[in-house]
Amino acid sequence: KLGTLDLWKLFVFAMGGILLGSQLSGYVAARWPHSRTIGLGYFVMICACTAHIAYGALVTHPTWPLAAIPILLYAAGSSLAYPSLTVMLMDRFPERRGAAASLQTFISLAFNGFVAGTVSPLVAGTTLKLAGAQGIIMLGGLVAYALFVWGQKRLQHTVEDTIEV
What we know:
By secondary structure, the protein is mostly helical. It has helices at about 5-30, 35-60, 70-90, 95-125, 125-165.
């Protein structure tokens, strides 16, 4: 079991995942459409959450570094998807890109603060609870993305129908 002075061990894996995902995002930025980058990011996050939940269900006393591998993968998937999500949001409001990016950052930080202050203490007892909460939050993000894409397609069809009339 890790003590309070061992947080750096998990932090290294989380930061490693962020660096890996960011590097991959930069590499594929000009090569892939946003939807493919986001799809791969969510696929990696789903795999990480599944592995984290399975690990939490099978192991009562998690060990390092095995327990940190899903954290690395999740951070990589998140860092892969996030830049494309930001660009898509800014493209939705081309005349107010700065405001859109600022609002997205504000909402993201406020949500992170809420989760850290209220959700984390409620689920901090076991790896399974933490992994379950991670999975639920990730699925919430995936649903929000799916609704955004659906709304974009609906808006596009509405515009096309208006032009044909």
